[in-house]
Design a protein that fits this description.
The chain is mainly beta. It contains 5 helices and 16 strands. A hairpin with a 2-residue loop joins β5 and β6.
Length: 423
Amino acid sequence: MRIRTGILPLLGIFSLLGASQARATEGYFADGYGTQSKGMGGVGYALPMDSLSVASNPASASFLGNRVDFDADLFAPQRSASIYGNAYGPDEGFNGNKIKIFISPEAGVIYQLPHHLAAGLAVYGDGGMDTDYGSNPYARFGAKGSAGVDLETIFISPTLAWEFAPGQSVGVSLNVVDEFFRGHGLGVFSGFSDAPGSVTNEGEDSAFGYGFRVGYLGQLTPWFAIGASYQSQAYGAGFERYKGLFAGQGGFNTPATYGAGIDIKPLRGLDTALDVQRINYGAVSAISNSFQSLLTGTPLGASGGPGFGWKDTTTVKFGVNYQLTPALAVRGGYSYTTQPVPENQTFFNILAPGVVQHQFTLGATYTSHGGLLPAGLQFSAYGMYALPQTVHGEGSIPAAFGGGNANIKLSEKVLGFGIGYKF
């Protein structure tokens, strides 16, 4: 009965996630998983903090006891673009913020089993991008109406971990992935597609996929831990309604990621954690293929067709957590991501300006030890600010569109809340 007490409320959040806006800050990936981790800059490979930690490292399930967590973020990105030096119109700026605030929930549960096993389930958004330009940046080229895209990626990850030696664990998760996409106001690109009727204004489409995640976590000494994890691509069907927009007839696999981290406890109650993460955007044609290949006669939607031109990225995260009192922990963090969008790829990335690089976070957790509230009940909160980042175009607008350049800009603010219960 105790495990059902944790799982049944969790299942009820599935419908909320399906309707949520999954957003991200490392390219189009989430900056971390769980309110406590996000308050430390998103670290998670070597320092498990709540049940969403299995989304970073499935081996974490061995060290978290029995618990359930529900989190929600209020996400406020500021997206904008400008076009200058173009033959088809004057220099002009564009605001992509028709929707100003998004709500992104996530949830997880972990339960300890006999024989040093632990089972978990996490439900979360791990990728997304939204732009909506009331004034269409592509109108000068013949596009009609407003323009924008909405990409959401939802993961459901059942997990099993095994503590094969004291303080040493390995884990594996099955990733069941559902991606959702819609695009509008992109009719100007239909003439450059091998499926011109499947480029824009086709409503919401979904693509179901699957993959896996494996991880290791070792508490090598009382003051030093290491962790590492690998997440495969999420393989599955493409976006059939948008097969004329994305390379490979609508293919859009979620990229593979991997990374490692350490946690050092220099003082009693103090954790300092460092993670390094790699995201392999380059293995997904729709994301990594250069838009400039359009100039060589390769149409949108074709195998090897144009994409967003994103490069693989490396993210370094650093976080500090201090147990100020038995009930109160405070934390902070910083992360840096290499730039995924090259200067000559900004024209198409007006739709997906995932360019922020520097993020700062603060957070705290209150844990009840009984009295008015049940012992083991936790309340967490964090805030994140991603500094404004602009990528200035350089040779970014093809001559077929009148030349010139496009600049893209993004900044972000997030306020997140979480409730956890150790049962």
